[in-house]
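Whether sequence alone determines local backbone shape is best considered at the level of individual chains. In the encoding step, the backbone of a single protein was reduced to a row of integers, each denoting a local shape. For completeness, the protein is quoted in full, as a sequence line and a line of structure tokens.
***
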Amino acid sequence: MATRFKRRDIAFEGKDWKNRTVTLLRDTIKRHIALYHIEELFVVNALQSKLSSPIAVVWNPGAKSEQAVYEIPCNGHPYLQVIIKEKGWPKKALIVTFYGVDAIPKGKKLWPVQ
């Protein structure tokens, strides 16, 4: 199964800290963000402009995803956590969800490398 999206299916695409293209699908916004994280809809433009400069990226081995944390206030929280997974074939980096958090998650830091 090839990972191909029509232009109308894509909310935005941008380069992340690894210089790879990351995609946010309209379907993710409609079927997940709008249902479970309604306040986060207001930060999509800010996320798009700051996608390449998170303050930290942590690996989540249980979900096999990257948790990128941005200094974007959201819903009373100081940070926005964005979950990115590689899906499909060929692998494509997709934003699967994002929401406000109070602290940077613990775990193996992928970025910035220390």
